[in-house]
Design brief:
The complex is a heterodimer of chains A (about 160) and B (about 180). Chain A is built from three helices and five strands; from the N terminus they run H-E-E-E-H-E-H-E. By secondary structure, chain A is an alpha/beta fold. The longest helix of chain A is centred in the first third of the chain and has 17 residues. In chain B, helix 4 crosses helix 5. Classes of the chains: A alpha/beta (about 160), B alpha/beta (about 180). Chains A and B meet through helix 1, strand 1 and helix 3 of A and helix 1, strand 1, helix 5 and strand 6 of B.
Chain lengths: ~160, ~180
C-alpha cells in the first residue's frame, strides 16, 4: 500500500535502511544522558566583607555609647543543636525572639543617628555552616545588610571584622 | 469440492518507528545540551538553604574575577563517617576538605599560598596596596563546621582579600527550609 511503508520493511523498499541498530544506539545514549543529568540548583550568594587592613585596629578606639549587635552562636554537643543569643542575653528560643531582640537593638542605633552599623556573628568552630547561613538569612530578611564575622579568639593577629 | 471461505488477508503489524525515533532524537538533544561536560570550579556541594540570597548569575564557576573555594565532605570510603551516614552533621574537621578547581587545599599553607597568588592579581597600588579587589566565593556544605569557613576567611583577610561571598541555595517553594 502506498504511503504505509515502515522503516526496515525491505519488502516494500529494497533500499530501506535498517533502523534497529540506530534505535539501539540512541536508546543507550538517551539512557546515559538521563542517568548523568541533574538539574542545576538555583544558587545565590550572601555578600560579606572582611577588613581591608586585616582587622588590626591602630590608634584610638572610638568610644561606644551602644554595644555592638553581636549574635553568639554556640554548639551544644549534648543536644546536637545550636544555641543563639544576643550578646550576654540568655539564648533565644526561636528565630522570632532572636530577630526581635536584634531589631530592638538596631532601632536604638538608628535613634542615635547610626545607619551603617554591623551585625557581628560570633560563631563557635563546631557550629554547622547551615546554622550560620540561617542567621545571616534572617538578618538579610530584615534588611540588615552589613554582616560581619568576629575574629577567632585564638588568633589575635587576624580580625575578620 | 473444495472449501470456500473468506479470503485470508495478511495484516501488516510491524510498528511505525518514525515517531519514536523523532522523540528519541529530541530527548537526546535535550539531555546533550543540558549536560555540563565543561571543567568547573564548583564541586558537588549541598549548599545551605537561604531565602534572601542574591541570585548569582556567575554560579557556573567560570568567572575570571572570582575564586571559588569549596568546602566538602570527603568520601565515605575515605573517612568511614558515622555521623554522615546517619544523616546528621559531621563536625569532625578532619573529615572535610577544602578544594579549589579540583585541587585539595586543606593544608593551610597551600591555601594561603594560592590565596596570596590570587590576591596579587588584583592588588591595589599606593596606600591601598594591602587590599586586593579579588573576590572569593566560599561554597561550603551546609553540614560543614564553621571552623573551616572561618579558616578560609582568616586566610583571605591575611592576604588582603576583603570581598567574600557565601554560597547558598534558594529553596524550592514546596520544600520547607529545614529549621
Amino acid at each position: 500500500m502506498a504511503g504505509s511503508s515502515n522503516i526496515g520493511e525491505e519488502t516494500d523498499n529494497p533500499v530501506a535502511i535498517n533502523a534497529t541498530a540506530m534505535v539501539d544506539v540512541i536508546f543507550c545514549l538517551v539512557l546515559f544522558f538521563m542517568c548523568s543529568f541533574h538539574f542545576r540548583e538555583l544558587e545565590g550568594k550572601i555578600e560579606t566583607w572582611l577588613p581591608k587592613e586585616g582587622g588590626v585596629i591602630t590608634g584610638t578606639v572610638e568610644k561606644k555609647l551602644l554595644e555592638d549587635i553581636c549574635i553568639v552562636i554556640d554548639w551544644d554537643e549534648r543536644t546536637n543543636s545550636a544555641s543563639r543569643r544576643l550578646g550576654n542575653r540568655p539564648p533565644a528560643k526561636s528565630d522570632g525572639e532572636l530577630i526581635t531582640l536584634v531589631l530592638e537593638m538596631s532601632a536604638d542605633h538608628e535613634k542615635l543617628g547610626k545607619k551603617d552599623f554591623p551585625v557581628v556573628l560570633d560563631v563557635a568552630r563546631k557550629v554547622p555552616w547551615r546554622e550560620v547561613v540561617h542567621v545571616m538569612d534572617l538578618c538579610k530578611k530584615e534588611k540588615l545588610e552589613r554582616i560581619e564575622f568576629a575574629a577567632p579568639a585564638a588568633k589575635p593577629l587576624v580580625g575578620a571584622r | 469440492m473444495g472449501r470456500r471461505g473468506t479470503p485470508r488477508m495478511e495484516e501488516n503489524v510491524s510498528p511505525n518507528l518514525i515517531p519514536m525515533i523523532d522523540i528519541m532524537f529530541l530527548m537526546l538533544l535535550f539531555f546533550m545540551l543540558g549536560a555540563d561536560m565543561g571543567q568547573r570550579d564548583i564541586e558537588d556541594v549541598a549548599l545551605p538553604l537561604a531565602m534572601n540570597v542574591k541570585e548569582d548569575k556567575k554560579a557556573e564557576g567560570k568567572t575570571k574575577d572570582r575564586l571559588t573555594v569549596n568546602i566538602l565532605h570527603q568520601l565515605h570510603s575515605e573517612t568511614d563517617c558515622v555521623a554522615r551516614l546517619n544523616g546528621s552533621a559531621c563536625l569532625n574537621e578532619k573529615h572535610w576538605r577544602i578544594a579549589v578547581r579540583g585541587q585539595d587545599l586543606t593544608d593551610p599553607e597551600k591555601l594561603n599560598e594560592l590565596l596570596k597568588e590570587e590576591a596579587d592579581l588584583r592588588r591595589g597600588t599606593g596606600p591601598d596596596q594591602k587590599s586586593s579587589d579579588r573576590r572569593v566565593m566560599v561554597r561550603a556544605d551546609g553540614g560543614a563546621p564553621y571552623g573551616l569557613v572561618q579558616d578560609v576567611m582568616t586566610a583571605c583577610a591575611q592576604v588582603g582579600i576583603y570581598q567574600v561571598e557565601c554560597g547558598a541555595a534558594r529553596p524550592v517553594p514546596d520544600k520547607p527550609v529545614p529549621h
